[in-house]
Here is the input.
Amino acid sequence: MIEVSAKLLHGHVFLSGEAVECSISFSHPSLASHRVSQSHTDVFESLAWAAAQIHCQCFTDSKIQKDTDKTNLQLTFADTSLGASSHDSGQIEIATKPKILFCDLRLSPGQTKTYIYREKIPADSPPSYRGQLVKYSYKIIISTQRVNHPVKFLRVPIRVLPLCEVSLNEAGALCNETTEELTPTNPFLEIRQKETSLDISLQTLQNITARRNPNFYMISNTWGKVARFCLFKPAYKLGEDIIGTFDFTVATVNCVQVSVSLQCEEETTIDINKEKSKQVRILTFSKHHEVCLGYKYTQLILPIPLHVTPAFSTQLVTLKWRLHFEFVTSTSKELEPPGLDQLDWQAPSEIPIETMVWSLPIRLYSTTPVHVAQGVQSNTVHRLVIR
Here is the structure.
């Protein structure tokens, strides 16, 4: 019996273009039967070879227009010993070249061999995403085989976050502008290593999402002004809180209640009767609901979950984020605020209402993988037993 174990050295969350490091161990557990065996050669275990690679598989609805060029990638791996790994349902979107870990490994009882698999995720790869119409799933596939035995696979799931083109472009410009500033002028200080483009991209994302730029929106319907809404910044990263304020002092129409939802908009191209058309799915996450009748001011706090996928776009799907507002208003005179002499005022049992909706686009970016890994627990050690 041989036990294969894989451990991700830096968590299970990575950015596009980041290097994945995985420690892969092959061990031959020592059993009681080995101690009484007369011949040590009888208890050796051997493997012919082992390899590792990163797979990104795409799962789609049958009606969605697919990229036919991906079929060549599927056929390439079907002609090798790794072809069995492509038997999973779904289409191979990204597949790195297999890296051979060893050939002809022999393990005595109690012996363990450990190898480090390091691979860079392609910078143009799609992020991990579980939508209603499209899904992208990443795995490190470790394959090994005994002589004259079928190939065995150990699949280690990982999560990939997108880096937006804006951050990459700004990172390249920032890298050229700040080359001289990276070296300290004090000769007694330790010289820092030159920052990579990935480090600068993370810093650029931090600068984009930390930039406060309050925007004010006057919300009105056919009867008049409902409220003035202030959003303190338009760009956010995973794990942040979306904070805004409502000002009802400028209103000429009573706002009875307000609801705000954080929504993602998934847009794909589908093929129906040989005609292409757009299909959109809306998914709601955090929601804020408040009865605001009689309020002058109130605030909005919406947390952004760590498990969602930031905005991205591929040839197959485009994901956008927005705030969806629902205002319940009324023009009833019975809702006028009472005077000081009307201390026994009671709200009416029935009032005529109208509902209006409004959607405000926002920009949602990735955050540091360590932050996401701490908030979303996952198993970082995976095992396979070969008998």
